[in-house]
Amino acid sequence: MMSTGTAIVRIAIISAILALLLLVPLGLGRYGVYVMTLWTVMTIAAMGLNLTLGYAGQVSLAQGAFVGIGAYTVAIMTSDGMPFVVAAIAAVVLSFVTGWLLGYPALRVQHHYLAFVTLAFSTLMYLAFRNEEWLTKGIYGIIGFKRPEVFGLSTSDPLVFYYFCFAMLCVATAFTGWIVWSPWGRAFVAVRENPVRARSLGVDTRRYTLMAFAIGSSLGGFAGAIYAPLVEFVDPTPFTLALSLNILMMVIVGGAGFFFGPFLGAAIAVLLPEWLRFAEGWYLVIYAAAVMALLVYSPLGLLGIADRWTSKWKARAARGEGDAAAPPLETASLTPEQR
Description:
It contains 14 helices and 2 strands; from the N terminus they run ααααααββαααααααα. It is an all-alpha fold. The protein has a single domain, classed as ABC transporter involved in vitamin B12 uptake, BtuC. The chain has a two-stranded antiparallel sheet. Helix 2 runs parallel beside helix 7 and helix 11 runs parallel beside helix 14 (301-325). The longest helix has 27 residues, at 205-231. The chain is globular, with a radius of gyration of 23 Å.
């Protein structure tokens, strides 16, 4: 049970981070605002993969493909005159259905075999984006769609669009939190830890495996839906296997299975390279070395380090209380009169 003091500290930290995310873009230039907006998009995509991999334990290398599905759906529909809201809903639904179908191989294969299946799907989708010119315009891409209007307010200004994407991130965070802290989330963890035991306790492992893929994929499609108006040009180049691997790295670096892991992981993957630009040609080398050192030191990611430190602190506090409550060893066997 969380103590009142701990709850107050957590609320204060979250409030400070929210204030920082709301105020920092005000002092940035156009490119800085773009990078912050890209962080919100990638965080949503990483949240979806964290649900599939971190909570349900299903390995997927296809999250980048679902971002592409969402981006192309919005680009195609809005360029034909459909409202953004309708296109975004269609992107989420299409990603959900496709993720559900992709989940069926997970019922038969696991671990690296499942990774190969999702890798093949990611490659297939990239080839479809590039070669099906009648739908995707191929390597020429889709252009001519605009950023959405919200309650009659245009989001064409970069700062306004950042706040729009930040609001979408809050919506995705609330939805994911509802999933994780509901019986569904506990069922996902049960499937990850021991499918046989979960099945013996009455958990429908088949359904929850499919749901983990479908919900995680729909968040990827949602990220793609707001990525399209961010760049205002959709072509196959961003949706290669490299994007799926980058999102996977965000989840692992932040901490797979930790709720706020994708936030930190996306910050490392999106913001850290920009902060290292002062190193000029060496910035990618420093970035790669930092990530490798982190994973060697803590395979559970950044929040894994924090969790380990917290556990040690609680253990020390518990030992201290126990030592204070117990009588000294040399007097423990003495009677009250002898003491």
